[in-house]
Amino acid sequence: MKTQDVKKVEYYLHPTDPRFQGAHYAINFIMQKYEWGGYTKMTANKWFGVNRTEGEVYSKMAYKSMIFDMYADEIYLTNRHSGLSSTEMFRFEDLYGAGPQTIERTSNTNSSLNRNNSNDFTFRALYNSEKARISNRLAYSLTNVPHNDAVNSLVYSSDLFSPATATSLTSNHNYALSYNGNFFFNFSQKFSLEAEAAYTYGENKSNSLYTTGESLSITNNALEDVHNFQLNPRLYWQLNDKNSFIFYLATSQNWNFIDYSGSSPSHQNYNVGGYLAGVHYDLSLEKWNIGGEFGWVWERNHISNSHMSSNFPQTNAYATFSPTDHHQFEANWRYGKDVPDASQKSPNMLQQDELMWYQGTPTLADYSYQNAGLTYTWLPNNKWQLSADGYIYMLGNRCVTIYSPTAPEGTMLRRYVNDGDYRSGMLGISATGKFFGGKLVAKLRPQYWLRKTTGAYANTRNEITCTAQLTYYFGKFSLWGWYMTPSHYQEEQSGIVERTPAKYQIQLGWSNKGWNIRAGVYNFLRTSWESSHQTLTSKYYSFDRKEFSTAQHWRITLAVSYTFGYGKKVDHYDEVSGTGTASSAILK
Fold it and tell me: pTM of the prediction?
């Protein structure tokens, strides 16, 4: 935003204004208003060391109570360094009628090619007044991956298989058209109504070919039509200065129609939806703020010939105590259920390679979660901000993949099941210091993590992580850098234990009038293309693999943006952006 247009900045703790939608905290910028005008912002971003190019254009035009804005972008990425180096251990009970077999399969990527191109276009018309705010947004998103290819060398410990070269050719083409409408009406100081309606139509297309020459060829293609509709009305009631209510309803309906072709052809229909009704209450006192909400969810799943339905509560509670302007305590608790991804519920079964098949589970159950957190914040003066926090997160009946030698010819089958619980706890400290009149800002965030899983992948793993950040402002320049320690953890809904390396970045920025230029270097001491090291151990299947990608490799980034106005000035905030393509139910 143009800082010279800011007339006043307001900070709210648990604001009662319904336009903040029940947020616990809000910052409101009071801007200079003008009769008409607009501005256009152009941004270009280039990565060196990693072949990635980004460009975007945003334009806003305002006239009295109307605002029109448009957004367009393009992202292009070419990568020839993706792949893996893995050792898999298969334990079969009766493979191809040859009896029990234990086979070690070693795979190394010899060459690869990944190309990704995406575009977003968004248009919005917004009417804004003291009594009403009406927004209508249209968006189109396209993601095209013409190549996600790899050539791997395969070596086996068994005489049943000869060394081979496997070629994997994969492509994707996805697009989506979407509408989002937001309607807010302020009837009086006590009552206001807001409703949000959204509809998305998308098409997802994927093609996959896996071959080891003349001995094996597997084709898995899928074409999917996606329809998604959402409606969410909310009624705000400000009973008095201390008490407020939000009554809400919501529905989400998803239709997916998938045609699989190739080695395992089939047709699948998805009709998955749900309804939610609830109430939110907030009590605001001089030093206390207490509130919570309670809602009920009705869910139904119709996936081809499988039908399931369920209902469950969703609730949360919070309390904030601020004895003085320098101290604050906050506690919160939440309970509810999450729904497995539609792709995990596919009734289809597809072949991955010569030893592995994979299948979804239409009867996957929802998994419950609850978390509780406590935070203490101390503001001794304008130079220091200190806080200590902790939370406990519990996921019950989680969704994971298990492996069993029950696929055709006794090969391995990977499928989704509900199995075991996940527990996570964190204790952390945050410290922010400002020096030299606020020109130097230092932040430190050490955290201690406790993680435990039960079930098929029972595991306990604790670790300490830390993030440090320094920012220095001098004139029209800024120098910013951060460092994040390595991490070693088990994934929340998987048996995979993953190691990721340290990450760090230094960035120099300059801004003047409408120009903003940033140059940075990321992981500048890291020449390896290895992005993570993963292991999995189970009764019938285990692996130890290294994944390679552009994610952790060094790169130099250069970003340039220029903003110019026309007519009279308008506010530089609340800008629209891309919406992305439609979610997919294609089996993965």
Answer: 0.88
